Amino acid sequence: MEDQFQPDAIIIGTGLAGLTAAMEITNAGKKVLLLDQETEENIGGQAFWSFGGLFLINSPQQRRMGIKDSYDLALQDWKGTAGFDRKEDYWPRKWAEAYLKFAAGEKYQYISKLGIKLMFMVGWAERGDGSAHGHGNSVPRFHVSWGTGTGVVKPFVEKAYQAKEKGLLQMKFRHRVTGLNIEHGKIKGVKGDILEADLKKRGEPTSRNVVSHFEYTAPHVIIASGGIGANHELVQKNWPERLGKAPENMVCGVPAYVDGKMIGIAENSGAHIINPDRMWHYTEGLQNWDPIWPSHGIRILPGPSSLWFDAKGNRLPAPFLPGFDTLGTLKYIQETGFSYSWFILTQKIIKKEFALSGSEQNPDITNRNYTLFMKRIFGKKAPEPVEAFKEHGKDFVVSDNLKDLVEKMNLLSGNRLLDYEKIKAQIEARDRELDNTFSKDTQVNYIRNTRNYWGDKLGRVAPLHKILSPENGPLIAVRLNILTRKTLGGIKTNLNAQVLREDESVIEGLYAAGEAAGFGGGGMHGYRALEGTFLGGCIFSGMVAGKYIAGL
């Protein structure tokens, strides 16, 4: 019976974008074949490991928290952030506008009908460069799924298995696509390798030993295979000069299967790949003390209070503050000649402000445990995974006094770049700014401002206090590494998610969605992202591709 299954569409990749497209196509009674080089254990892809942040505009959660948001304000923020300035940005602009309309309209109902629940507090990510018209979110828009990334992925996985039970969907894992069959400008199907079975746990690297080959036909093929984040060779090859020299050493924020190979295969078949130099990597990466995949890195999602120093002990200037301007800070750090930097903070700050990206690092939210979540908000310690990193992580040092802390920082970095007196003078200067209710220190002023938003005051931003006062200790230093994550460019598509050639003609029957398409159009984020837009971009682009095929 399986051999008689003739799909209307083949989808490459069982991540969030692919699963969304499959749901839309099978909802219309059409048949789908899902292919993935990984094991069934990895269904849901990279989204499973995410913190589960979703970007929404004028949501019920925002309104309940007194946040006034609108499509126009979000468009202002998006344009100032994206910085579209290329001829190739025609379709990315169109996708950005369409996505914002989705985020301000249908998106909330779309995810709610699937059973995705959002937490009551709205986070304020990428707070920006300090200008109204420039980069950053003017208001909080980061909605965390109650269940993190696992909660976002779960309903789409369930829909796939329901469609399978109805005979509308087949899944073939360990099927790695190596080529697209195109004849006379139309897609005919795909071919590739069957990899040997592997019993590794989710996220662990699997075998690439080939045991056989396959070839399948269908009139429609969707590439939803993800980006290049785990392929450091491609990351370094595409690294733009505007971000400084590419780091020689980076920690990896995604599993090894995020290799970007399908993007190259699409290009060899005539697809136009645009904006490959646009990428989204983080500056607050930690070496995971309990790794799952190679060079496994975890990102700190920081509140705004930690003092940020470069490798030579210079405090970073505004707007390069924690949680403000990811790529601006990355460029600044790379121009120092070193690919790491430091946070210096107190126990009061780490308790209130440190969250770690990743579903596995947030058991309270992932497992929907209200008791644990209340401990996160009101407990005396940081969440258990954060405390575990503080105790076991290679990048953490703790001390009751600054001199000893700086000595330990130098030992950790293996050099003598940090001068105790220099760092002490900078922290003392900042601490003196707290003696009045007004200040000239941008970071101090911003902390005072952000605590006017009660979501930050309740659960995200520590009360202002002097770093060097003993009652606020112990002192903590964290070495921050560059962490690879997202591909912002990719396969160029029109607003039907159809893949385009360089001359704008359509490769009939070929589509792209998710990170492989730069989340839409070949890079709907432009140069920078507003956060919470990656999972949403996968859902939206997968939905668009699926609905278009379903309607044919």
From TrEMBL:
Q: Its domain of life?
A: Bacteria
Q: Which Pfam families match?
A: FAD_binding_2 (PF00890)
Which cofactor names does the annotation list? FAD
Keyword annotations for this protein?
Flavoprotein, Oxidoreductase
Asked if the Swiss-Prot or TrEMBL record annotates the protein with the keyword Lyase, the reply is no
- Matches recorded under SUPFAM superfamilies: FAD/NAD(P)-binding domain (SSF51905)
* Residues in FAD-dependent oxidoreductase 2 FAD-binding domain copies: 8-535
Write down the InterPro entries for this protein, in alphabetical order. Answer: FAD-dep_OxRdtase_2_FAD-bd (IPR003953), FAD/NAD-bd_sf (IPR036188), KsdD_DH (IPR014614), Succ_DH/fumarate_Rdtase_cat_sf (IPR027477)
Q: What is this protein called?
A: FAD-binding dehydrogenase
Species annotation: Chryseobacterium gallinarum
